[in-house]
From TrEMBL:
<feature type="transmembrane region" description="Helical">
    <location>
        <begin position="69"/>
        <end position="88"/>
    </location>
</feature>
<dbReference type="Pfam" id="PF01810">
    <property type="entry name" value="LysE"/>
</dbReference>
<feature type="transmembrane region" description="Helical">
    <location>
        <begin position="39"/>
        <end position="57"/>
    </location>
</feature>
<keyword id="KW-0812">Transmembrane</keyword>
<feature type="transmembrane region" description="Helical">
    <location>
        <begin position="149"/>
        <end position="174"/>
    </location>
</feature>
<keyword id="KW-0472">Membrane</keyword>
<keyword id="KW-1133">Transmembrane helix</keyword>
<dbReference type="InterPro" id="IPR001123">
    <property type="entry name" value="LeuE-type"/>
</dbReference>
<keyword id="KW-1003">Cell membrane</keyword>
<dbReference type="GO" id="GO:0015171">
    <property type="term" value="F:amino acid transmembrane transporter activity"/>
</dbReference>
<protein>
    <submittedName>
        <fullName>LysE family translocator</fullName>
    </submittedName>
</protein>
<feature type="transmembrane region" description="Helical">
    <location>
        <begin position="186"/>
        <end position="207"/>
    </location>
</feature>
<dbReference type="GO" id="GO:0005886">
    <property type="term" value="C:plasma membrane"/>
</dbReference>
Length: 212
């Protein structure tokens, strides 16, 4: 088993996972608005769903998914609608001028609910399986046995958890949280715009002729 190849696979996945996108932006926003503990739980949900996508990719179902036009279309539409839902709530936060009312509403979310929010967000993005297939192809040979596939899965899963926890740590510092409280409405508005763009892009890709 080539250790260097496995580390290369993990690094490739880490770069993809830590790149700015709906998941990382939402995690950063939660870290700034709710603190490190809540963000860690949310990040765990994000990472757990990436692990599930990794199992799907490793089992060969990822390739089947990419060739199943209607299943992939349904997943993309679901993912786009879920992102649109997140955009709506972010826009609602941006229009809410009362921090007290907002904090009261957010306090009803349990840690389990935050975990599920993160889990559903990444599970609603079928393009995650593409990231897994690309990363595994870097360090795992086509004729690899189960042990090598499992090693690749574990290395990339570690990279997924590390990238999400880095966002939780970096954006939960007092400075970041104070800045968020000051510019909360602007940040929420920007996040709403990002989610809207990502939603439209995912839904449009569902009806494109290209399978990717």
């Amino acid at each position: 088993m080539d250790l260097f190849a496995l580390l290369s696979s993990g690094l490739a996945f880490f770069i993809v996972a830590i790149s700015p996108g709906p998941a990382t932006v939402s995690n950063a926003t939660i870290a700034m608005s709710h603190g490190q503990k809540t963000s860690f739980v949310y990040a765990t949900g994000l990472s757990a769903s990436l692990f599930v996508w990794g199992v799907i990719a490793m089992s060969g179902m990822g390739a089947i998914l990419q060739t199943s036009v209607y299943l992939l279309m349904a997943l993309k539409i679901f993912g786009g609608l879920y992102l649109l839902r997140l955009a709506f709530f972010s826009a609602k936060e941006a229009m809410n001028s009362s921090n007290d009312k907002l904090e009261k509403l957010q306090s009803h979310n349990s840690l389990r609910a935050w975990f599920m929010k993160g889990f559903v967000l990444n599970m609603s993005n079928p393009k995650s399986v593409l990231a897994w297939m690309a990363a595994l192809s870097v360090g795992v040979q086509a004729d690899a046995g189960f042990s090598q596939l499992l090693a690749g899965l574990l290395v990339c899963t570690f990279a997924a958890f590390a990238s999400n926890y880095i966002y939780s740590i970096c954006f939960s510092f007092n400075g970041a949280m104070k800045a968020y409280q000051r510019f909360r409405r602007w940040v929420s508005g920007a996040v709403a715009g990002l989610f809207s763009i990502a939603s439209i892009g995912l839904i449009r890709s569902a009806f494109s002729k290209s399978p990717g």
